[in-house]
Fold this sequence. Notes:
It is globular, with a radius of gyration of 19 Å. The protein has an eight-stranded parallel beta sheet with strand order 1-2-3-4-5-6-7-8. Helix content is 51%, strand content 13%. The chain has helices at 4-12, 28-38, 47-52, 59-70, 76-92, 114-132, 147-158, 184-193, 207-215, 232-241, 249-254, 266-272, 283-286, 290-301, 305-318, 323-340, and strands at residues 15-21, 95-102, 135-141, 166-170, 196-201, 221-224, 245-247, 276-278. By secondary structure, the chain is an alpha/beta fold. The mean pLDDT is 94.
Amino acid sequence: MTDNNLKQIIHDMPKVELHLHLEGAFTFDFLFGQLQKYGDDRKIKTIDELKSRFVFSDFNHFIETWFWKNRYFRSEEDFEESAYQTLKELARQNVVYSEVYFSPWDFIPGPLKVEQITEATLSAIHKAERDFNIKCGLIADLIRNLGHEAAVKRLDEVTPYLNKGIIGVGLGGSEKDFPAKPFKDVFLQAKRRGFRTVAHAGEADGAESVWSALIDLKAERIGHGVRAIEDNALVDYLREKQIPLEVCITSNIKTRIFSSLEEHPFDKFYKKGLMVTINSDDPTMFGSDITSEFELLADQLGYSAKDLFSLTENAISSSFLDNCGKNEIKATLKNFISETGKA
């Protein structure tokens, strides 16, 4: 078990999260209120019953549940309040900076336009930054499932918000059914416009998916990337190039990508010197958060405070912040380490 002192350090340490889907990070209190507000599902009478709705049999069940809960986001106020509560919860865990995946298209068709959802979300971020001293950059998830032409349209829709809250683009969705290569020109155009780039790869599909994200898309970071373990040459390449991997351990186990922590490659990657970061993915949907992920490493794998600080340094270095922003958080972390005497 994690000793109380290390548990306190994990809670208090400044954290950076790079792989969190805003649409999967709502609070249960908020969603339960939405069910009552719109009254569409009378069978769920308590928050515990709502939580039981989020126990997944496989990845497809997860996706089905994802779109089910989206039905309860219908007004600009819904999106603003949910994002605000999410950032409040991150701040409670001493997350000082997050780069958050954001997919307004998941709610289309619906009563709102992409611009309305985007502006409501940005309003929430501004309020949270003021109220909780947390900074957040949005990564627009272009998603593979409607093809590259739809991704081009989506890129055009978010371009007016570049450097006004949206800092990058990502590519989520079904790796197996929609390989990365057809999105090559979309990512090239995004880079030319000034977006930072990241692609989900090596989660539901294997090492070839990661190679394609790196070679075809030239993605700066890889979302997940854990199935790189299936290709030794790829593992060596990731280590040599220090390409950041946004690893989400509990998520991978809950969606049955790996059956257990023992099977999961995170520890191997870390000990080999890959640029791994630790993240929660969809914290509410998977019953975890970044604090719990750090506790898992300490409790089950024996990671020390020094290890956890090193992972946080990885996240700072891998972020899309400019050097000034990175140095500011590094200084905050350095001061915290000095105060704990765990350097």
